[in-house]
Amino acid sequence: MDAQTLEQELRTYRPVGMESFPPEFIWPRYDGVCVGNLAGTAARALGATLGGALPPLRQDILGDLTDGVQRVVLLVMDALGWEQLQHTIDRHPQTAFARLAERGRLLPITTTFLSTTTSVLSTIWSGFPPVRHGLLAYEMFMREWLMAVEAISFSSVHEPFSGTLSRWGLNPKTFQPQPSIGMQLAVQGVLSFAVITRQYVQSPLSQMNFRGMRRVTGHVTGSDFWITLRRVLQEQRGGRFLLGGYWSAVDTLAHIHGPLDETGEAEIRTIGHMLETFFLDGLTAADREGTLLLLTADHGQITTPPEGGILLDDHPVLRDALFLPPLGEARVPFFYVRQGQYETVWQYLNEHFPEQFYFMSRDEVLEKELLGPGKPYVEVPHRLGDIIGIARGNTFLVRDKELLTKLNGRHGGLSSAEMLVPLLALRLDA
Q: Is the pTM value of this prediction over 0.85?
């Protein structure tokens, strides 16, 4: 499989009945060409299975790279989109990513929907699609708490990262309806470890995603991240295990400066340099034996200048027909409609924003399996809202005026910049 052919396939694919979907949108390929298939791939390579989860990657994606694998290193570079990476490689053809691609495979795959960290990480570290695990977006209405919740620290959206629900009794170990990959591997005799940003080690979301892992280690700098990964790999030499890693800087820079700013380009080149210098170069032949490296991203980002923003208060008819302001993501607002106002809201949205958003009903999103296959978790319909808007172009919708200029890059939607992510697959013993 070559990258150009696969990219064309991903850009043009439509499931039956969705042939008229906007041509610029990318459909998430839960059937074997998606980040959601990485958990199953890692498990199978390690001689394990994930009951009820999404299938492994399609055979033509990795070929024989999984043969004889004893250790899998699965790294997630937050917001390292395929298009952003290709832009960097085109401008800097000697970057480490280009060299490593020659030793293995560098291909595009899709992320899940919504293309946002909360949802995608929950899929990557469980193997279950969003429709099954229920963490759909950064902001959701959770009826069990009667609250609009920010779903990293699980706090009120009006007081993010304050630990609201933890103080009220939220138990991250039991909140998720589906088991994590660490839990499923552990009962099959396979250990798992993770290295993530230190400030997130004790966050409710991390505690949910890394249930069952033997150890989760926090890092504070880039050098710390790559050296810690190398040390864990060396400490566990000789056993079967999964080593996960998460790096957030590309996402942070893209939010602040936009995804095509030179800061993001510099960060990508730095990631490649540190990957080679502090991780790969320090490994012995024994450390490398039977080890498969999979590096990917949870999503990309798209540039969102302030002029693309829509302020809810500028549309009082819409605002007053909702029982709470839109949640979800600025690029994918969830509209929770007051009783008896559905037709009013649907008509208003399609009359006023036909070029800015593509609108779907909750039932259509679920029936077409845009959130993935399988029976929806019982809370999903309530968290999703009644009408879902999917941004076209650089559009976004916010409820507060100051949010119009807060971020120069965003994600969550179905554009190729947001949905296509890289998969670098490399046998370290080759």
A: yes
Taking the C-alpha atoms of residue 349 and residue 344, their distance in angstroms, rounded to an integer, is 9
Cβ contacts of 339 within 8 Å, gap of 6 or more: none
Are 184 and 50 in contact by the 8 Å Cβ rule? The answer is yes
Identify the CA nearest to 422 among candidates 299, 263, 244, 249: 299
Same domain? 248 vs 290: yes
**Domain contains 171:** no
| pLDDT exceeds 90 at position 328 | yes
Residue 244 shares a structural domain with residue 375: no
Identity of residue 360: M
Residue 163 has pLDDT above 90, yes or no: no
Which residue, among 296, 303, 266, 261, has the nearest Cα to 420 in the 3D structure? 296
- Quick check: bond before 384 cis, omega within 30? no
Q: In 3D, which of 228, 219, 225, 220 has the Cα closest to residue 270? A: 225
Which of the 8 DSSP states describes residue 237?
Answer: T
If asked whether residues 298 and 318 sit together in one domain, one would say: no
For the chain, the C-alpha Rg in angstroms (whole number) is 21
Domain check: are 422 and 364 in the same one? no
CATH code of the domain containing 343? 3.30.1360.180
User: 83 with 92: CB under 8 angstroms?
Assistant: no
Mean pLDDT of 348-364: 97
The average pLDDT across 178-193 equals 98
Full DSSP string of 105-123: EEEEEE--SSBSHHHHHHH
pLDDT at 430 over 90: no
